[in-house]
Amino acid sequence: MKRLGIVAALLAIVFLVAPPAFAQVKGVYWTTSGKAGPFPLNGLVPSLPPEKNREVTIPINMWVIDHAKGLVVFDTGNNAAISDGQCKTHWAAGNCDFLKPSQKRDDVIDRQLQKIGFRPDQVKAVITSHSHLDHIGNIKLFPKAVHVIQKKELYQAWWPEKFQRDGDVFVMKDFDGPARDFNYLELEGDYDLFGDNSITVLSTPGHTLGHQSVRVRFPNGKTMILAQDAIWFKENLEGYPAGLNYSVKDYNASINRLKMIRDLENGELYFGHDADQFNQGGAPKWFK
Q1: DSSP class of residue 178?
Q2: Which residues form the domain of 277?
Q3: pLDDT band of 282, cuts 50, 70, 90
Q4: Nearest to 244 by CA among 54, 59, 44
Q5: What value does the mean pLDDT take over residues 211-226?
Q6: Rounded to the nearest 5°, which phi and psi values hold at 135?
Q7: Is residue 16 part of a domain?
Q8: Is residue 207 included in any domain, yes or no?
Q9: Helix or strand or coil: residue 183?
Q10: What is the pLDDT of residues 234-279, one digit of tens each?
Q11: Would strands 199-203 and 146-150 be described as parallel, antiparallel, or unpaired?
């Protein structure tokens, strides 16, 4: 009994002096790899009823997380090659004509890092939500980083299912050649990136076979949920699924999961391409 009392006292001291489990995030930078559009929203959300359809110009969201153990980039946006009107040199012409990307060279992730005082070779980890052209485009700029991706998503990138190839949303030039030999942390589910509960990779399949989102917790207890293409727009939360999905069943389950995390943790949920959210929040922007 006495020994148990001593152990309990020691544990109490540890918990009193230890920092919070999620005290390692110093800031989160929200930026964009340019924008896309204008185009009709039902071009991406065909389930949308006519009265809800509208013209949109959408952000291509990217995130930089400044952590005490190292810098993290979440998604690298459109490939630099499509910048300044050169889309058709890298993407299929149909995607260029519909999406109308407006990316300038200064919008690319390496220049975005420079704007906030970092270099690409300082990035410790690159988390890729999925392997579509507007999210994995610049991983080759980070040869020294650990690339964090679901194992199934690497399969999806290098050997996409036939029914997924028709839209030309997998651009092999984004992740061929030297990227084949990068240092990949191949996940099979959720993962606590630094072991301190501050940056958690969340498995959110549906849009693609191995899509993943990220939850960030700040020292003050604030939670940010970065959904990326698990949720494109607020309309997806209203029951209108996106038009490009590997599995609608898994897609809806992932949306519900992110909503529950938001509600249970009183968090802020950030969608992958929502124009209204972008216009209200205004990237580029630091959260601290």
Answers
A1: G
A2: 22-283
A3: confident
A4: 44
A5: 97
A6: -130, -30
A7: no
A8: yes
A9: strand
A10: 999 999 999 889 999 999 999 999 999 999 999 999 999 999 999 9
A11: unpaired
- What pLDDT shows up at residue 23? 58
Residues 179, 279: Cα–Cα separation, whole Å: 34
Does residue 38 have a cis bond before it (omega within 30 degrees)? yes
Rg of the chain over Cα atoms, rounded to whole angstroms, equals 20
CATH code where residue 171 lies? 3.60.15.10
* Cα distance from N-terminal residue to C-terminal residue, the chain: 46
pTM here?
0.91
Instruction: Work out the average pLDDT over 153-162.
Output: 86
Residue 246: how many CB atoms within 10 A of its CB?
21
% pLDDT > 90, the chain = 85
Number of independent structural domains in the chain: 1
Residue 288 lies in a domain: no
CB 235 within 8 A of CB 48: yes
Instruction: Give the count of alpha carbons within 13 A of 280, CB side only.
Output: 7
The answer to whether residue 260 is domain-embedded is yes
Identity of the amino acid at 147: H
Sequence-ordered strand ranges (E) for 169-211: 183-187, 191-192, 199-203
Distance CA 84, CA 234 (A): 30
Give which of 223, 275, 233 is closest to 255, Cα–Cα. 233
- 154's enclosing H/E stretch is helix 151-158
Out of 126-130, 154-158, 256-260, 265-269, pick the least confident: 154-158
Question: What mean pLDDT do residues 6-21 have?
Answer: 45
Structure-block tokens of residue 44: 């991406």
Strand bridging mode 123-127 / 70-74? parallel
Contact (Cβ atoms closer than 8 angstroms) between residue 35 and residue 60: yes
